[in-house]
Specification:
With 167 residues, this protein is mainly beta. The protein has a single domain, classed as Beta Barrel (OB fold (Dihydrolipoamide Acetyltransferase, E2P)), CATH 2.40.50. The protein has one helix spanning 61-70; strands at 9-15, 20-23, 29-42, 48-60, 76-89, 95-108. The radius of gyration is 21 Å and the shape is globular.
Length: 167
């Protein structure tokens, strides 16, 4: 009987560089990028210390194409994946080992600018979306007084189609 195990990594951090989208000779998309996570704590003598960890992220296939399309340096992202370790021989003949997180899913957070409505920059992106679909946008126009009735607790924009809903 095999024992159960779990290899799951969840990170929230900022991209340290723009993603590099490449294709293998077989045509499989692979995207690599870096994410930095920060930790701060207060020591016993009251000093605040900070520590930054850098993580190498790898995405494959359709998810790699989505990363190349929606991610850029400085963006805050939520990442979910699994940790892998691999060894290889470098160009100089030295044996090297590398730790990577193989991405399973991600969500892009806003760019920090204040906005009144949801935009493509602030919409969540997950591996379930297709590369050909554009992120939905929500109109920032206020609905006319005719479409808002006092008994309605929620203002409704009549021009939203089911294709505009992001889930």
């Amino acid at each position: 009987m095999a024992s159960r195990s779990l290899n799951r990594v969840i990170l929230i951090g900022n991209l340290t560089r723009d993603p590099e989208l490449k294709y293998t000779p077989a045509g499989t998309a692979v995207c690599t990028f870096g994410v930095a996570t920060n930790r701060s704590w207060t020591t016993n003598d009251g000093q605040t210390k900070e520590e930054t960890q850098y993580h190498r992220i790898v995405a494959w296939q359709k998810l790699a194409e989505l990363c190349g399309k929606f991610l850029s340096k400085g963006k805050k992202v939520f990442l979910e994946g699994r940790i892998t370790y691999r060894s290889f021989t470098g160009r100089d003949g030295q044996q090297r080992s590398i730790t990577e997180i193989v991405l399973d899913d991600f969500i892009v957070f806003g760019d920090g600018r204040k906005a009144t409505g949801m935009t493509a920059e602030k919409s969540p992106v997950s591996s379930e979306e297709t590369a050909s679909s554009e992120p939905p946008t929500v109109s920032e126009q206020k609905p006319s007084e005719e479409t808002v009735r006092e008994e309605d607790p929620v203002k409704v924009n009549e021009n939203i189609s089911p294709d505009d809903i992001p889930f």
